[in-house]
What does this fold into?
Amino acid sequence: MHRLLSVWVLISIFVAPYTQAHHSFAAEYDGNQPVAVTGILSKVEWQNPHIWFYVDVTAADGKVATWGFSGGAPGMLMRRGIGKEVLILGEVLVVEGFRARDGSNNASGGKVTFADGRSVFTASAEDAVPK
Amino acid sequence: MSLFKTTVLYVFTTVFCLLNITALHAQITAEIKLTTAGKPDLTGIWAGPGFAHTGGELDNPSASPYTTDNMAPFQIGGEALLTRPQTGNLRIDDPTAICLPNGLTRQIPSPYPQQWVQTDDLLVILYEYMHFFRTIPIGEPNRPHAQLSENTYMGDSIAWWEDSTLVIDTIGLKAWVLDAFHPADGSSRWHSDQAHVVERITVTDAMNANYDVTIDDPAIFTAPWHQPWQMQRKPNWKLFEFICEENNRCEGGVCAASDVQQ
It folds into this structure.
């Protein structure tokens, strides 16, 4: 079952780059500013219209910055078989997405990779998805 | 093997297959739930045109917008009414980004489930996305719509049966986004306030239905055009809450910091 879910998730990554969901990706995020961070998951907002999750990223000088990433709507993710339990506080994540247009530490969170190599798709159905 | 034996074997195999196909078709047809009036009963949870329709519990919200190739030729100036370049104003670029309604033509292929409740003279459609609903009286074909005071996001819908196909006829739509087509240039597609939308729903088996949408928008197109879609039952799904204002944190790309970011 877990393997089936993984395959489904991977399929989802590649089949839903630009369709439709809540908003226009171009209105909020800059497709020319890809973001990839590694950090510790510190908070999850499993809410509409998009989930948000936060990752504490420690820079070389020891300073910690908290990045926020948006994903799909809870219902949209759950119908793909992705539940809230996928995101576990304290886990180390690599998150790839595209930065918000205001240049803040916020981005669309297209792809999450866990320390054990598992990849989870959390983007909205319309968001650009990192390859 | 002789020609005779080969022929007999071929005929026997063909008849056997045809009988099986006929039996299977009869079984599927028998499973289509009918109302006491003998019409298909559309009551239930559906993954509308905004899903891939996997046939299983899990599905993929991945609908394409209306297909450009299906559209009729433009009226003079029609293309500029259909496609609006990005303005920086979310009311034009994408009203749903500030939690305004998506409107009928965009709601139909929304990648969220919808629940249909049908009686002999009424169809109610409950959409998960933004909690929209439609109450659609079912009656005589091609009867006039009620007098409308003003155009609305979902318009005025009436329905009737043409044999086993349910026809939903909608007018009174305000000019609004046609669909969720979001190319990288940030442009959007719109219909006019003259749009006349006809949905035709034909159940094809116990789990699936054809969902054809015809759009007649004489301000933009020279003729009606037709978009063929499908929908699929998801009997174990239920509608979830969808509160757009709950956590819409990055309107227009300007993000409000969460508490953990402050």
